[in-house]
């Protein structure tokens, strides 16, 4: 049975131009011609076309496909093995690129330029929820403080992170102790802990006036993902996030000096 170039194009999902190109390259010349001189392909031609498309899908250039066709029994296995090695190397390269891209995404969203192993080593149970980080980046996109915090976080070395996380661990233990011992959220001890946290943010990330600190604390109380950045889930107690939020607000009120409007603008 014979098929026109248009029929073969439709069967194989290739263009007529591609079939003409294969003909010129000596890979697939139609077995016959119609009385009007048009190309006609046989069933054997279609089988050969399938082979060409198979090798093309594997990434073989046309000249290598031609070499395979010169002696399929001798050449096909050798070329396929070589191509398998090339594909394996390419897969490994793309996997590395994917990992680099994923790390870049995490750095952009969280500002932490550490490998997953280093993150575990430094942060322990403290986890970064990328959905929260993305929402926060969008929410504070126009905030100079957010941009400064992200830039400074991305510039921190592993040792910087070790130091700041060590400070955070000590502070967290004191916060849990104050809460467990029933200290009032607006008492001196709780407010001093709130002030320590505010200064910690200023020291390591961005200037954190009381107005900004209140907004951060409001996020802690409203979103468990935000609070998990300072107290891991395993150490949390019911009401602890609200307790810290109240302590921060009480500390901000304690520090108020009549210039709250300017403070809020920052």
UniProtKB/TrEMBL annotation:
Q: Which UniProt keywords apply?
A: Activator, DNA-binding, Transcription, Transcription regulation
Keyword NADP part of the UniProt annotation? no
The record's section on InterPro entries has: DNA-bd_dom_put_sf, MerR-type_HTH_dom, MerR_fam, TipA-like_antibiotic-bd, TipAS_dom
Please state every residue range assigned to the domain named HTH merR-type. Answer: 1-71
SMART domains in UniProt: HTH_MERR
Q: Does the keyword Transcription regulation apply?
A: yes
**Xref: Pfam families:** MerR_1, TipAS
Task: Write down the CDD domains for this protein, in alphabetical order.
Answer: HTH_TipAL-Mta
Protein name in UniProt: MerR family transcriptional regulator
What species is this protein from? Streptomyces castrisilvae
